[in-house]
Design brief:
about 375 residues; alpha/beta; Rossmann fold; 4-stranded parallel sheet
Length: about 375
């Protein structure tokens, strides 16, 4: 919200942007056009999230915005109420994920809770879509997956992919990251949401195998937010047991994005070790665009959508993390492969998506 949407919107003359979400420790000073309002505290699966609803409602009452872009479905009910109680209030709904599919298949929730929550999400999203001035999709596949979108005029729906927006003052690399000489450590990176579905155990297993095949040994950094306490406990035990090659950063709290970007710049290989699953197979992970924008070579689970992008830029190799890996053969592949032969791509940056956001606003406001 802050790095892409707010930055883009604040560039419009006469626009004041208020960002309501989770606060980030150590956030830098904001420009005059952007204000941050932390409303979420605590873990995602806690009762404290109910208090966020009250804080959000108070914020709407105090700020009296002309229009609201909603990025989280749990804020839709209050936003719909806010819209119904006033004239000329506009809503844009940014669909980041296929939430109902995720809830019904990822087993974070159990039994009837999972079914009712998935049904409730789909119901409120359908109502919001009918009342929204515009709909933003993070993935093109959602147009076919979400049946309520079929009722909308095509001009009201736009796809904005999760491409990379450099931080303020960040200077992007001019040359791709090269693998180190065999006698130096090979630094692997797992970044973003830490979960079993996203392949954290597979990433750790690969790093352990590469340690025996890469002469200078291999090291893995796992950095991101983990919302599952039991998984986090096990990961902390693993990191303590293998402190010489496994580093865990974050876990209980979200990590400032600038810290993740710094780790990308210090790594040699980015790992997309996702397990096959309906909720991710038709999506391009944000971290994929982040790795490409920094010229970081990638090892990715087999996925035709990801591989199309990797092949286009010579950015990475497919690897089946679920199968036993011949680490020696993999090292030979890595050392013989030429990554990013045409340099770091520019079509993975947010600039083009920001222009599409402006066009949507010009159309609906």
């Amino acid at each position: 919200m802050r790095g892409k949407f707010a930055e883009t919107l604040a560039g419009r003359a006469g626009t004041r942007v208020h960002v309501a979400g989770r606060g980030t420790a150590g956030a830098s000073a904001e420009p005059a056009e952007i204000s941050l309002h932390p409303i979420f505290n605590g873990r995602r699966l806690s009762l404290e999230r109910l208090a966020a609803q009250w804080r959000y409602g108070q914020l709407l009452r105090r700020l009296k915005p002309d229009w609201v872009i909603v990025h989280a479905p749990e804020l839709l009910p209050l936003t719909l109420l806010w819209q119904a109680l006033g004239q000329g209030r506009k809503l844009i709904y940014d669909i980041r994920e296929n939430y109902a599919l995720n809830v019904s298949t990822q087993r974070v929730y159990q039994g009837l809770t999972r079914r009712w929550l998935a049904a409730g999400l789909r119901w409120v999203e359908a109502r919001a879509a009918r009342r929204a001035a515009g709909i933003i999709l993070a993935e093109a596949s959602y147009a076919a997956e979400l049946p309520f979108l079929n009722e909308l005029p095509p001009a009201r729906v736009v796809v904005l992919e999760n491409k990379y927006q450099p931080h303020s003052g960040e200077i992007l690399r001019q040359q791709p990251i090269k693998l180190p000489p065999p006698t130096e450590p090979l630094r692997l990176l797992y970044s973003g949401t830490i979960s079993e579905l996203n392949g954290v155990w597979e990433a750790i297993a690969l790093a352990g195998q590469l340690r025996t095949a890469w002469p200078g040994r291999a090291r893995l950094t796992v950095i991101g937010f983990c919302q599952q306490p039991e998984l986090l406990r096990k990961l902390e035990q693993q990191a303590a047991a293998h402190a010489d090659w496994l580093t865990l950063i974050g876990g209980f709290e979200p990590v400032p994005h600038a810290r993740i970007v710094a780790e990308i710049g210090q790594s040699h290989l980015g790992l997309l070790a996702y397990r096959p699953h309906a909720s991710t197979e038709r999506c391009r992970p944000t971290k994929l665009f982040e790795y490409l924008a920094h010229g970081l070579p990638v090892l990715a689970s087999p996925n035709s959508l990801w591989q199309e992008l990797l092949n286009m830029h010579g950015a990475g190799l497919p690897i089946d993390f679920a199968q036993p890996i011949d680490a020696t053969a993999l090292v030979v592949r890595l050392q013989s492969h030429s990554f990013y032969p045409n340099g770091i791509p520019t079509d993975v940056l947010w600039t083009g998506e920001g222009k599409k956001l402006w066009h949507l606003l010009d159309t609906v406001i």
